[in-house]
Input
Amino acid sequence: MKSYTELDSFESWSLEERDQFTLNVIKMLVLDGVRNANSGHSGGALSSADFAYILFKEYLQFDPDDDQWFNRDRFVLSAGHESMLLYALLHFIGWMPMEEIKKFRQLGSKTPGHPEVDMKGVEATTGPLGQGVCMGAGMAVAEVVVRELFKKHNDHTEDLLSHFTYILCGDGDLQEPVALGAAALAGHWGLSKLIMFYDSNDAQISGKTSRSDSTNVAAVFEGLNWHVQAIDGHDHNAIRDAIEKAQVIEQPSIIIGNTIMAHGTAAMEGDHETHGAPLSHEEISATKKKLQLPHATFYVPDQCVAHFQSRFEELKENGSNWKSALAELKKDDSFTNLWKLTIKDELPELTYPEFEVGASIATRKAFGTTLDEFAKQLPHLVGGSADLEPSNYTGNFANTYGDFLKDNPIGRNFAFGVREFPMAALMNGMSLHGSVIPFGGTFLVFSDYSRPALRLGALQKVRVMHEFTHDSFYVGEDGPTHQPIEHAMALRTIPNFYVFRPGDAKETIACFEKALQLKEAPSALLLTRQGVPVSDKFIDEIISGVNKGGYIYKDSEGQPELVFIATGSELSLAIATAERMNDKKIRIVSLPCWEIFMEQTQDYRDEVIPLRGCMKISMEAGITLGWERFVGPAGLTIGIDHFGASAPNKDLAEEFGFTPEQIEQKIRNHLKKAIIT
Ligand SMILES: Cc1ncc(C[n+]2csc(CCOP(=O)(O)OP(=O)(O)O)c2C)c(N)n1
Ligand SMILES: [Mg+2]
Output
């Protein structure tokens, strides 16, 4: 092993010696960074370092001058706790200043513990293990979809949109079932440009992986239709061979790297205690000595950077050639229009479907009709259902555009199977790719299954549309397991997540469109199973109301005494109740989206829901907790704070007090005892 004292002759060292020395410098950067922060993860970063180094130095396609170059390979660090390894590599690329490395995990730094978004060179990493595997698969799907979409328009675009997606994952990622759900889909779809390195280091937080696992990962992935290779994860030539093979095999690939935890350290190799802690000063010193590096911290000699960047001229040239080819293609207007629509994300003015006033239409059905209409105008609107296609009304979309399959990559429908969580996490990856608008459907009650991905998507600021139908106890006969109660409110607690509960078919159009316009947040559309009457209002009026989150749907003459605030199916219930109470001045407010309403000015909100001088009554077929925000201490909240029951929905409405007669009675009783503030 070469020593730093011989650095003057670096150029004459063998390739292996230069690689080993540079890699050791990177490893020490990891150890110094974690030690300096007094927190972070060392062991796994060191066991994965050989693979990550070879990948970044020799294979990953990117433009050093443009981190956003669209055709770059995507790299997902599913083992997100190894972030210091990624930062060290980004430093070698030139995208991560040393000051930031020294501020690892500190407030305001560009080197947070688990970076998820908004960082140069970071596509996705996952704090929550397992989801990175899904996001990588999602990016790989989007890569195929967008290539096929352009190919349909112009045969010469194939090389323009063609890149690999690499994932680095650890034991924890593959122990999370969500990863296997996404892997099953990746295998089924034949995502041949997806390459995953599994750092099989037989160590995790609590000890050896073998304490909790005896899975034959190779057999599992073979069964999932992946190409499997098992290698010594510290052997650089084996890594090169495996990557090159994975690149040409027509299946997604897993490279199982048998590695040693904390590889290269003086006395801690194989020790799981290195997982999430800085190594002691003594161990770091001894390791530097062992690796023939100087005692100095954050040691990065220029020779190593130059060696790492030996491919950069070629990479820059690739980037600029690509841009010239793009400029050439942009001379074709239809290409440019498609480019603007998809990659540049310029939404056109949409035309809407029409619904018959007064007809009873379930909002889930209205969603399906709107989807069919919007899909014609947005070729990059893709998605599907977690095996609830008829219930989610995405069947027509599936028939029209076909299933996305290995042999039908032009298909825009994803038959996700009963995989809500993988579906949601995959969609986050699709959106992060920056080319498609994904949607996914299931029952609202199963949003709990996908919740971790909803939260991560909100944090990552991705535009993903979750279609949640069967949005209340009105589900009926399927019973309480299928009847959402706390779900709408639970979704509203996620920051940067928009929950829409449209009151009729026209509001469904408006909510769908608004969700498309929210480019930096996921959203959920909560839709009825049962029919609700179509409003007689003009669509423009509804759209302008929905765009403010809530609006006066029907006003009283003069100052209102009562203000009904309703969402979803309870909008028509509010109207029917008001019709029975002619002796009162009643205003009806439709509030399909709390989050957007709360973004309006205080003046607007007060104008719609007055602070004083009236009694406010909320109506939503879900828990009442949270509605105090709008009705105040003297108001009345109408909802359901217990589980539902199995019965026809009309009987349940009666049983749970959701008829106009019962609501009127509740309001009149409340008025007798309440003091209006
Ligand atoms: C969903 C989830 N559960 C738990 C954790 C906490 N956690 C972070 S790393 C880790 C152990 C992972 O082991 P492995 O992937 O083998 O990483 P290594 O120790 O090899 O670096 C755990 C439990 C997490 N980040 N995400
Ligand atoms: Mg491990």
